[in-house]
Write a structure and sequence with these properties.
Helix content is 41%, strand content 14%. It is of the alpha/beta class and 317 residues long. Strands 1, 2, 3, 4, 5, 6, 7 and 8 form an eight-stranded mixed sheet that branches.
Length: 317
């Protein structure tokens, strides 16, 4: 484990304001990471709140536990993906929460440790699993076994890279000669697949979007997010709020669509005169547009540049 990992929680002031953190609250942090948002919320409550934190990453939870040790039994940390928060609430004896936060970004601990395989600044094994001990397909398995069509579609859809076809073709050609097992080798293959003009003018490394796409696929990040969004309204107390920070346009669209769905009374076609769906709004949207980091925060933490915060409030039944 890296010593003293650097961790700066994004949009912390905005999260505290929109979640209206106050003493006596029950708080769910579905993506604890290194505990930055957790500590900020507990401090805002004057230490007089209860927090349940989830994360797939045992190493991150251990570090968060050390940082939150002063709050004692008011903090309960559980190793689990955020889609399983209802089971964690039940185990804690909680029926509802007053505030819920989900930060869909990758933690500094994961990004900065070459052994985790999330980045290519330093060479390391091609893994990318947030909970490696749970098994499942790693990025190495995906890169070396997936068909050309699957790789192309993942890089196109999750990475939104216009060179997806060229990159997938280059990966398939390279792995036929030798398995691609390290982040450095994959980055080389992707960079070589890019047209020279694109490489010369690109503002980021050509492999950035491919690595993002593989990480999202390996961890089923969109599926996890959809499940969380489906379940969270039923676990918010009246007046309770949910805040979601996303870093990818696909994630943000999922959040926007889910909030709109839950903020609408009737979902029947417009031409239908009488409502037959029986749907009732459960949420009130508090952010008409996503809240983004200001210039000062972006200057201090470049990872905040693409962060988008959306917040909604639970309506009475």
């Amino acid at each position: 484990m890296l010593s003293e990992p650097v961790h700066v929680p994004v949009l912390l002031d905005e999260v505290l304001e929109y979640l209206a953190i106050r003493p006596g609250m029950k708080i769910l942090d579905a993506t604890t990471g290194l505990g930055g948002h957790c500590r900020g919320m507990l401090e805002a409550a004057g230490g007089d709140a209860w927090l349940l934190g989830l994360d797939r990453d045992r190493e991150a939870l251990d570090e968060a536990g050390r940082r939150l040790e002063a709050y004692g039994e008011r903090v309960r940390l559980v190793r689990a993906p955020f889609s399983r928060f209802p089971a964690a609430l039940a185990e804690a004896g909680w029926e509802k929460v007053d505030a819920a936060l989900l930060d869909a970004g990758v933690s500094s601990l994961q990004l900065d440790d070459p052994e985790r395989g999330f980045g290519f600044t330093h060479d390391g094994p091609l893994d990318m699993r947030m909970g490696a001990e749970d098994g499942g397909e790693s990025a190495e398995g995906l890169v070396n076994l997936a068909s050309f069509a699957r790789l192309r579609d993942l890089i196109r859809d999750y990475g939104e890279d216009p060179q997806a076809g060229r990159i997938a073709r280059a990966i398939v050609a390279a792995r036929e000669k030798a398995a691609i097992t390290t982040t450095g080798r994959l980055a080389e293959v992707v960079a070589a697949a890019y047209p020279a003009k694109w490489r010369a003018t690109a503002r980021q490394h050509p492999a950035t979007r491919t690595f993002q796409a593989l990480r999202m696929a390996v961890n089923d990040e969109l599926g996890e997010l959809e499940e969380f969004l489906r379940a969270i309204p039923g676990h918010l107390a009246t007046g309770g709020r949910v805040a979601v920070i996303s870093f990818h346009s696909l994630e943000d669209r999922l959040v926007k669509r889910a909030f709109r769905h839950e903020a609408t009374d009737c979902l029947c076609p417009r031409e239908q005169i009488v409502c037959v769906c029986g749907h009732k709004a459960r949420l009130r949207i508090l952010t008409k547009k996503p809240v983004m980091a200001g210039e000062a925060e972006v200057a201090a933490n470049s990872r905040a540049r693409s962060a988008k915060l959306r917040v909604a409030e639970r309506l009475p039944d």
